[in-house]
Design goal:
Radius of gyration: 36 Å
Order of helices and strands: HHHEEEEH
Strand order of the largest sheet: 3-2-1-4
Largest sheet: 4 strands, antiparallel
Distance between the termini: 86 Å
Shape: elongated
Number of helices: 4
Strand content: 15-25%
Oligomer: single chain
Structural class: alpha+beta
Number of strands: 4
Helix content: 25-40%
Length: about 170
């Protein structure tokens, strides 16, 4: 009788844990072993060919005639320049190198421009608002570029969201 009373007061035995995690782990281990047992691709027996980057085109040596020509071209396309503290950077198309290799920093003092050749740009290239066939590449300040990108992405989002309203669904017969 005492045994019956003890059994009633004992809590029931906990349920046995599921064996599913064990099977999953076994499957994972077997998969890893199979992957390790598969044959590997062998590396090519020859040494890889190393290609050297092409040497960047050197800017043309400035001459008086070239400087006068550049000043004339800049005067014609200066309306596309983005100025910050009366400074901008410009690249001039070099027909010999077939690239924009002649880079200049331009200082504006009133109506006069002063040019100084530079090795590389310190600002990002201006990618909008310049004619495609322009013989000059212009730069813009980083802050102005970020502002333009923000406006452009906001406008694109607005256009995307307004598209369903602009093109209503066709009427069903």
């Amino acid at each position: 009788m005492e045994d019956d009373e003890l059994e009633e007061t004992r809590p029931p035995a906990p349920a046995k844990p599921s064996k599913t995690p064990s099977w999953v782990m076994l499957g994972f281990v077997l998969g890893v072993l199979v992957m390790l047992a598969l044959p590997r691709k062998e590396a090519p027996s020859f040494a890889p060919v190393v290609q050297l980057a092409p040497k960047p085109a050197e800017p043309a040596k400035p001459t008086i005639e070239r400087a006068v020509f550049f000043e004339g071209v800049f005067a014609e396309f200066s309306q596309y320049a983005v100025w910050e503290n009366d400074l901008t950077e410009v690249a001039f198309w070099n027909a010999e190198n077939r690239a924009f290799t002649d880079r200049y920093e331009v200082l504006r003092m009133g109506e006069k421009f002063f040019f100084r050749s530079i090795a590389r740009f310190t600002r990002p290239l201006l990618t909008h608002g310049v004619p495609e066939n322009s013989p000059l590449q212009f730069t813009e300040p980083q802050a102005r570029r970020e502002e333009w990108l923000k406006e452009n992405s906001a406008e694109s989002l607005r256009t995307f969201l307004d598209a369903p309203r602009a093109y209503p669904e066709p009427k069903k017969p």
